[in-house]
Amino acid sequence: MRLTSTALVTAVTVVAGAVGARAVAQQPAPRQATAVGSLTGTVTNTTTGSPLRAEVSIDRPRRSVRADSAGRFTFRDIPAGRVRLRAISFGFEAADTLVVVRGGEIVTVSVRLPAIPQSLAEVRTVAKSSERTRFDEQATPSVVSISAAEVRRIPALGESDVLRTAALLPGVVARNDFSAGFNVRGGEADQNLVLLDGIQIYNPFHMGGLFGTFIDKAVSGVDVITGAFPSRYGGRLSSVLDVKSLEETRNGLHGTAEVSLLSSSLFLGGALSQNKLSWNFAVRRTYADKVVEWIRGNNDFPYHFQDAQFRSRLALPKGGSLGLTMYMGKDLLYHQDESVQLGSDPGGPIDITDDDNETITFDWGNRVVGLTLDQPLGARTILSQRLAYTRFGTHFDLPSESVYLAQSVAELQLAGAITHARHRHTLSAGYELSSYRTSYREQIAIESNDGNSDAKFPDPLATDGDTTMRQAPAMAGLFAEDLWKPNDRWLVRAGLRGEFVSGANWLGLSPRVSAKYFITPRLAITAAGGRYSQWMRAMRNEDLPLRVFDLWMASDSSIPVSTSTQFSLGAERWVAKDRFLRVEGYSKTYDRLAEPASTVDPRIRPTLLRYYDGRSYGADFYLRQLDHNGFSGWIAYSFGVTTRARDGVSYWPAHDRRHNANVVATYAPPQSRWALGSHLGLASGTPYTGWAGLMNRYRYDPVRNVWGPPGSDGEEDVRGPRNGERFPFYWRLDLSAERRFEMGAMTVKPYLNLVNVFNRKNVFLYTVDTNTDPPQVKGASQLPFLPSIGLRMEW
Amino acid sequence: MVRHTRRPLAACAVALVAALTASIVGCEIKGTTAPELEPRVVVHAVLNPTSAVQIVTVERTLRSIVRTSSEMPPYDPIDDALVIIYGPRGDSVIARPATGAGVNAGVYRVSSITVTDGSAGNGQPNVLRLRPGERYGLRVETTIGVATGETTIPVGGPEDGSRVTFNLDRDTLRVDTTSVRNAAGFYLRHEWRRGADERYVTTLDGALLRPPSSAADSGWSFSFAGGTIYPGIAQRFTLVAVDSNYFRYYVAGFDPFGDDTRGNTLTGGVGLFGSVAPIVSKVLDLTADADTPIEGSWATDRTSATLPTAIVLYSSPYFPREGNGRRIALSGTGQVSGKTVEAYGTDEGNGTTQLFLAPIDQSIPGTAATGSISGGNLVLTDNRTGERITYQRR
Q1: How far is B172 from chain A (nearest CA, A)?
Q2: What is the ipTM of this complex?
Q3: Which of A333, A457, A703 is the closest to B278 by Cβ?
Q4: Which of A522, B17, B125, B189 is the most exposed place for a label (fewest CB within 10 A)?
Q5: Cα-Cα-Cα-Cα dihedral sign, residues B171, B175, B178, B183
Q6: pTM (2 decimals)?
Q7: Using a CB-CB distance cutoff of 8 angstroms, which residues of chain B are in contact with residue A549?
């Protein structure tokens, strides 16, 4: 809202009540004259008499204090003499006065400030978008915001997915249709800091990376920072994905229920006591397993996931708020051998001792809980404190193969920050204290299947019940940042972050700087650079097309902290009030990244991990149309080159996608009951390791030094150069349509999603059948044409 | 017959979920003929200080495993390669193509001696000096590429090859591993006339063989073969230290979505260049205490075409006593018509013993017999002919 004042009435009234005399009456006269005295008083609204939390300053010595909620202020140990006192409060005229302070005495002053009267002309309310606000007031580049409403209009697999939508943004690359995970500007998938209301989520996906963890109805929006993120964020190298929970502000009970071919979800929320308390709760469960079981009569699809998300906010006095966020999600792949008798608990996994069964249990899930306090300290300062706990765990159990794997990572964090706006500076400082726990257990028993004996002789090395690896590091971090606006043309953000990681005994300083120069009020150039570090990593094979089993490990004495140095330079032009174009180039280097060796065997521990460096550079193009009479969308194009190097050998990582473009368009005019959505994705192929033939394996007798004949130990596929091949060009068109019906107090919205309208067979992976001559290469495609329908009900 | 167990791959989970996902939503893309591939060099070599000849095989990768001949497996040898093995002291030798009847193409050999005293080692030129604990390089030059590799020969200490009598109820076979170095793992093999079991481990228990504290006791290195350690029958026990390349090729788990060929440690090619150091390879004449009535030495004056004239029987301490706790496994040897037979059987503890007498000369059929103790004597009955012989304890 833009305010125009036509006249200002200035009136400053300062009353120094009972100066000196009152003070003398209240305080006994000292036996000896001293050189210092005290100055106290109140600041009030001239018109109403209400106290003002004004900023009060004196010139001798130079001090300033903020009056409390009662308008009171005090200065002590002031040298006797004349002191100039100034009181400032937003919306009021400032007041200056001279006060005489006598040694050993307390001087009391009463300051009354008149409000600045405003004459409002006709007011046209033009809501300023968050993007435009960020353009005008922030120096952080590479930020994209998406609202939940936009997420819901984009065609989706089943139901809306915040993370899949994020993968359509510039600089963000999705590996394939099956993975909701993403790589940002050439970084690995675990280099993205995913936050829910400021609380970290380690694996924000459901099993395989097929779906994101967030229930879209419980999300208000997401900010994605694809590079050069400010110093308040640490622990990751590539990006920040900051998801904000929805806070219901409507009184009464409101909700949304949704049923789709994939899952059902329910959202409930409301506000109480004039919005002093708001809450919302959402649950979701897939039921494809139940549908298949009902149709086919057997458990051919033994997988489901369920999650729940809760958010509550309590308004505190003086503008503060206390927020509570909770999330719980679980995936379960459970297949039970039909020959096994049910135990006493038919609803859950069963302890099977018959090693002929094929029962498998594979679960995966996040648990998050966090409490956040935001408290303004006056008109220009805000204090935030957060206490949060987050945990990710997964376990795999295959009794028939005597394999049991379990992994978990947990973090308890206490963090806080204070932000103060002063003149042309916005100063921030904060801290983070984190305590981590990682645990990896492996139990694999080797059995001797001697036909002459029924006895089983487990491998003496089997670590029955023993934890293979456990870590308990801690991290302490501090940051300070200044957003400085020296004039109307410049915005400069300078920050410094310091972190110490125990276990690794690592201390790092990460400067982060960005500067924006406004060529015109609508055209700005932004340059940014910074250093980033990461000590919690998911040791997964990044070449794997699906996320199956993540092993989170912390840096320690043998695993170094990874670091990255990044630079970006870009320009942003607002061509209309609701349309802008952004072009940004970047360059990133990575040091001491880690991945598991392809020989995955904890018995050869020293080779469990291998380290590599990397580099990525490229440019992102982003044309964004904000809502304009119901039409919105964007065109995002990214050019990127990513390389990795180990032992002097350079290769393309599996997420190196040279060209990636997404065109998103949604149309939902206010006067229409229809909402249409479309997405066209085009991308060049990602690398994969090709097949280079077969080789004979040989059996060797070390006692007699005799080799068996060719193939005596079988045959082995020979891999080509790592990621030396590329999948073909990818493209896919998705469409969606939604119709709104009003049924009393309820709004019903049936919708239709069409994924891959043209049934384009984009390659997911190749396999080689070597049982024919010549061998045949076959491919498995990504998502085929998938129509899905659903129904959403809101009240 | 050799059985060995492989460590199951955790990547079965990978395959499971990938298959599950693909089966749900993926479609198969029509197959096409695989493009012609540039073949790569495949090399296999293991340096073994106990052998006077070191062998290197060189071949090309294959395009398919469809056999073109019913006699030979698919195999594309390279017989014109230059095979060089580099020693730790700047020395090098060239392996020559092996010749002779029954030798396949693509096999190269070089003579070797083992030097453990730090000397230059006596020997003809182009004889490889193998020094346990030292690092060796391999270079194979072919028209399709050059493959290289490196290995450090483990130090296993002096090899114990003595043959001794070993009482399973009382004796312990230990190995001194303090002098073992550069071993990524150990290969254990238990051989008996009718088969063998082998296992790879990364560490050794204090004892290779010892009397078990219980049937479930597995705290000794050869416990994996407990079910086939038969007292009364000579068996060979082998322990070999292997280097990391060897271990990685034959043992280590592998990610099928990894970036390299399983077990490969070569550069420019694929295969194995590893080394081993045998530590123990000894035959033990296994005995046990005669602590049940049927155990011991028995003899008869009668001759028979199928039943022995003398037989020695022991019960195995490694066989878990099931059921009522009285069932025991019996084993031993005997003489039938001047030929040695091996005896295997069980005693149910109810007075009846079932034995199978297996001639070492496997062209002769074996005999199933039922035994019992009567009046302090062993009575065996041929299950097929009904012939009955009484044996006195010898």
Answers
A1: 17
A2: 0.85
A3: A703
A4: B125
A5: negative
A6: 0.75
A7: 10, 13-14
> Which pLDDT score, from 0 to 100, does residue A464 have?
37
Q: Where are the domains of chain B?
A: 28-285, 288-393
DSSP state of A773: S
Q: Which residues pair with A223 in a beta bridge?
A: A145, A242
Q: Which residue has the higher pLDDT, B181 or A10?
A: B181
Determine the Cα–Cα distance for residues B133 and B116; give it in Å rounded to an integer.
Answer: 9
Per-residue pLDDT of A215-260, as tens digits, reads 988 999 899 999 989 999 999 999 999 999 988 777 788 899 999 8
Q: State the pLDDT confidence band at B86, using cuts at 50, 70 and 90.
A: very high
H/E/C letters for each residue in chain B? CEEECCCCCCCHHHHHHHHHHHHHHCCEEEEEECCCCCCCEEEEEEECCCCCEEEEEEEECECCCCCCCCCCCCCCECCCCEEEEECCCCCEEEEEECCCCCCCCCEEEEEEEECCCCCCCCCCCCCEEECCCCEEEEEEEECCEEEEEEEECCECCCCECCCEEEECCCCCEECCCCCCECCCEEEEEEEECCEEEEEEECCCCCEEECCCCCCCCCCCHHHHHHHHCCCCCEEEEEEEEECHHHHHHHCCCCCCCCCCCCCCCCECEEEEEEEEEEEEEEEEEEECCCCCCCCEEEECCCCCCCCCCEEEEEECCCCCCCCCCCCEEEEEEEEECCEEEEEEEEECCCCCEEEEEEECCCCCCCEEEEEEEECCEEEEEECCCCCEEEEEEC
pLDDT at position B357 is 86
Selecting from A403, A453, A774 the residue whose C-beta is nearest the C-beta of B227 gives: A453
Give percent of chain A with pLDDT exceeding 90. Answer: 46
For residue A450, the model assigns a pLDDT of 37
Query: Are the Cβ atoms of B227 and A782 closer than 8 angstroms?
Result: no
**Does an H or E element contain A622, and which?**
strand A609-628
Which of A535-549, A661-675, B175-189 comes out lowest in average pLDDT? A535-549
Order the strands of the A81-88 sheet from edge to edge: A62-66, A55-59, A81-88, A95-101
What confidence category does residue A337 fall into, taking pLDDT thresholds of 50, 70 and 90?
Answer: low
Test mutation, B41, B64, B223, B246, chain A, max A CBs within 10 A: B64
DSSP labels for A404-468? EEEEEEEEEEEEEEEEEEETTEEEEEEEEEEEEEEEEEEEE------TT-------TT--TT-EE
Segment holding A719, helix H or strand E: strand A715-719
Residue A697 pLDDT exceeds 50: yes
Q: Rounded to the nearest 5 degrees, what angle is found at the Cα of A452, between the Cα atoms of A450 and A457?
A: 45
Backbone angles phi, psi at A150, to 5 degrees: -70, -40
Q: What is the mean pLDDT of residues B219-242?
A: 90
pLDDT at B21 over 80: no
A696 and B14 within 8 Å at the Cβ level: the answer is: no
Closest CB to A709: pick one of B65, B73, B184: B73
| Cβ pair A499, A486 in contact under 8 A | no
Give the span between the Cα atoms of A568 and A590, in whole angstroms: 15
Looking at residue B323, its pLDDT comes to 58
Tokens 């906010």: give the residue.
Answer: A313
Chain A residues inside the 8 Å CB shell of B50? 705
Task: Count the neighbouring beta carbons within 10 Å of the beta carbon of residue A658.
Answer: 17
Residues whose CB is less than 8 angstroms from the CB of residue A379 and which lie 6 or more positions away in sequence, other chains included:
A53, A89, A90
pLDDT value, residue B271: 95
Give the tokens for residue A50.
């209400």
pLDDT digits (tens, 9 = 90+) for A485-539: 998 899 999 999 999 999 899 999 999 999 999 999 999 999 999 999 999 999 8
Q: Which of A401, A600, A774 sits opposite B33 (nearest CB)?
A: A774
In the predicted model, is pLDDT for residue A762 greater than 70?
yes
